[in-house]
Amino acid sequence: MYGDLAAKLIQDSKRTQSLDVLPSYQTDFVNSIVREIRDLQRDVKILLDKQGPNFRASQDRRLSCAIFVLQICMRRNKRCLLAYHALRAQRLEALVWSGLETTSIGIEDDTDDEVALSERPSVASGWHPDEEEYFRGHGDALAELKGEWTDVDLTGSMEPPRDLFIDVRVLKDAGEIQTEYGLIALTKNSQFYVRQGDVERLIQQGYIQKLR
Amino acid sequence: MGYLEHGRSSSTDIKEGARIELPLWMAEILAIGGISDELPTGFITVSTPAPLNSKVLNALSADPVNVYLRGQSMYFYKFAERWLAMTGDDALLDTIMDTFKARAAIVNDHAHNTRSALLTDRSEFLGTLDQTEITLFKAAHEASKDLKKWTTVNK
Q1: Selecting from 3.10.20.30, 1.10.3720.10, 1.20.58.1030, 3.30.110.70, what CATH number does the domain A4-97 have?
Q2: Alpha-carbon distance B115 to nearest alpha carbon in chain A (angstroms)
Q3: Which domain of life is it from (chain B) (predicted)?
Q4: How far apart, in whole angstroms, are the C-alpha atoms of residue A159 and residue A74?
Q5: What is the pLDDT of residues B65-123, one digit of tens each?
Q6: pLDDT given at position A137
Q7: Is A70 an 8 Å CB contact of chain B?
């Protein structure tokens, strides 16, 4: 029956709502639903072509019923597609605001590129290329917004810091970083006592972990 | 009623007065929407769906807590909401509201007492909840957990 594929897509959306990670983009489903819409459109055209240009809906009750049903199926499919994409777009936006970077490296020293990249988790797996572009575009827009106010970090932590310096442990190898107090080499499982402001970015990206 | 479904190659006619099953969204539109100003009546009429028939309603008015609501429909309350919006049946509305109130009290009780004395029929009841009640249960559970955490950890 028409609308079944769309119902499956909505089920996937419902599942997404309870997951933290965005599941893969359902290209096959989306494509078949679009194909279904096209088929419905074609059927409507065939029915209408049989009539003349002066067809009025009340003339033939049966025919207008058929066209009407096809029409509402098309609308239903469209609505389901829009809901699916709106949900994913919302999730992508939330990811941008949480400071996640999937493509670029956030560390000044670039010598240990290889190591850092290979250990980076791929959060962006299963995304459609359009979604990646949306993510990038939104990220750029956000960067522009943040650039207007250099004193305030709009995507920073909402909890006020308790101390100026904090203990951190390194989770992944991330090369070396320059701080006011000198160079710090971030090798896995090493602990440092550093200024909070310097490492906040790295905590957000998941390279180091704050210890209580 | 007319000419409805299109099969892959041929189209089949559905006779007037035939009974078929349709998804709610489609049935709603077809029943309510008129064709044009000259023909304002809808294409179909709908009869009471299975989850809201008299048998279920009798069971609900007798003992709402023991009814296997999930078996009727996973989204019982949402479904009833749509149906009531379409038909406006006051008696049905009262029954559903009373059911919800009675069950919500029990759901809340289960959510707050993880080691309640009703341990034996606990999982039975929780297995009969529909989606709305499950959300309610989760919210109540999280809320009581958060409150306990806040009162003990607050410096």
Answers
A1: 1.20.58.1030
A2: 26
A3: Eukaryota
A4: 48
A5: 888 888 888 888 888 888 888 787 888 899 899 999 998 988 888 888 766 545 556 67
A6: 92
A7: yes
CATH 1.20.58.2050 assigned to domain B48-155? The reply is yes
Q: Residue A120 and residue A103: Cα distance in Å, rounded?
A: 10
What are the backbone angles phi and psi of residue A127, rounded to the nearest 5°? -85, 150
Whether A44 and chain B come into contact, CB under 8 Å, resolves to no
Q: Are A171 and A210 in contact (CB under 8 A)?
A: no
ipTM entry = 0.73
Residues of A in contact with B20 (CB under 8 A): none
What are A111-170's pLDDT values in tens digits? 444 444 444 445 667 888 888 899 899 989 988 888 888 877 777 777 777 777 888 888
Residue whose tokens read 């550093």: A194
Inter-chain CB proximity B11 and A66 less than 8 Å: yes
Q: What is the mean pLDDT of chain A?
A: 77
